[in-house]
Design a protein that fits this description.
Layout lengths: L8 H19 L3 H12 L7 H6 L10 H4 L8 H4 L8 H5 L1 H10 L7 E5 L9 E2 L3 H8 L8 E5 L9 E7 L4 E4 L4 E3 H11 L4 E5 L8 H4 L5 E8 L5 E10 L17 E5 L6 E6 L6 E2 L18 H14 L5 E9 L2 E8 L5 H7 L6 H9 L3 H6 L1
Parallel strand pairs: 1-2
Antiparallel strand pairs: 1-7, 3-4, 3-7, 4-5, 5-6, 8-9, 8-13, 9-10, 10-11, 11-12, 13-14
């Protein structure tokens, strides 16, 4: 039940023996039964790895019957699922500069980009920082409109994201959103090491006033899984709200490592139905925010109808992506599109919902949008 980076599949099977012993003590399910079930769920279409089997609590027969377990998909199922997406469209989603330029051209609501460090590239309306020296000069200058949010041009899972709230010229330090500080030199070293594709400097978006009493001054986002049909008709399949906790500067879940929470959200009206924290044997349902004590169940996320409309409209711009994962900020300016994911993970949606994504609607859509060669062969 490792909370670390993903291991090789062989390492997962070896580590599964210890996890199986823990589960046997907790839920009285034999190791043989667990391994037999893992072997079955490894087959297509599920491709559930041992780590995912334990993280998703699929060993728990009281929570999930056999049919429900068969609706879960692992990250190794992604190559089979995302065959419906055109690879020629991948750069439009994966590269944040390209994606933001596309959203800007169509007039969708997005966070303002003040400056970019992406050698050899520019972004309309933003200051171009050609070198790391330029980045340092920008951060130390009056041109840097703090507070800022910096993030990699090519990144995932919120890695490398920093809320920069100010600059202390006497100490040559940046103030961070979590209350700590960082020397500018250290920031530049990290940017060089982590942000190989460059860095975006955007406005530090403020959360919607309705959410401040619940989760404080931290911005939160929703992941919206969209089906984009060939006929131009898009539908929302599932939505999850990422709830930030503690001093985290990003709301990403990262398999429970950051302490942030996930909430299942009703597509029809944006009502929070279930909130979870952690994963595996440490997963628990949460009713109140641990920082504020405010109730979470029954909360209606703000500007919901507008958020749905914006996601559906934007999904049709990315016509070559049949399955899209949109990240949308719940801001004081309404919903802001942050990015679209070409091959979004399924774990956020499945953790929050307590049910797999492979339901009847999923099957119908995938069967209708399989690549032409697969349809011809069937």
């Amino acid at each position: 039940m490792s909370k670390g980076a993903r291991r090789t599949l062989a390492d997962e099977w070896v580590a599964a023996f210890e996890a199986a012993r823990q589960v046997r003590r907790r839920v009285d399910k034999s190791i043989v039964a667990q391994f037999a079930e893992m072997a079955r769920l490894w087959r297509l279409p599920n491709r559930i790895t041992p780590d995912e089997y334990y993280a998703l609590c699929l060993y728990d027969d009281k929570r999930f019957d056999r049919a429900t377990k068969a609706t879960f998909l692992g990250h190794r199922a992604k190559p089979y699922v995302y065959r419906v997406n055109s690879r020629s469209w991948q750069a439009l989603a994966d590269d944040k500069l390209t994606s933001l330029a596309q959203l800007t051209a169509y007039g969708f609501p997005i966070a303002r980009t003040y400056a970019t460090y992406a050698p050899g590239r520019i972004f309309p309306g933003a200051l171009t920082l050609a070198t790391l020296g330029d980045v340092g000069a920008f951060l130390r200058s009056a041109e840097a409109p703090y507070p800022l949010f910096s993030k990699p041009v090519a990144g995932a899972l919120g890695r490398g994201g920093q809320a920069l709230t100010g600059y202390d010229s006497r100490r040559d330090e940046l103030s961070l959103g979590n209350g700590t500080t960082m020397p500018v030199a250290s920031y530049l070293d990290e940017a060089k090491r982590v942000n190989a594709g460059g860095t975006l400097f955007q406005e530090l978006v403020k959360p919607h006033p309705a959410l401040r009493p619940i989760s404080g001054d931290r911005l939160s986002t929703v992941r919206v899984l969209v089906f984009n049909g060939r006929d131009g008709a898009s539908t929302i399949h599932r939505v999850v709200w990422r709830v930030p906790v503690g001093a985290n500067m990003v709301d990403n879940f990262r398999h429970g490592r950051l302490g942030n929470m996930l909430a299942s959200v009703s597509i029809s009206d944006g009502t929070v139905r279930r909130v979870v924290s952690g994963m595996g044997l440490e997963m628990r349902d949460v009713e109140r925010h641990p920082d504020t004590g405010q109730a979470l169940i029954g909360v209606k996320l703000p500007d919901w109808a507008r958020l749905i409309d914006v996601c559906l409209a934007a999904s049709r711009v990315w016509n070559g992506l049949r399955v899209q994962g949109w990240d949308v900020a719940l801001s004081d300016r309404g919903p802001l599109l942050m990015e679209v994911n070409f091959r979004a993970d399924f774990d956020l949606l499945q953790f929050a919902e307590g049910a797999g994504v492979l339901d009847d609607a999923w099957r119908r859509f995938m069967n209708a949008h399989r690549p032409r060669q697969e349809r011809a062969d069937s």
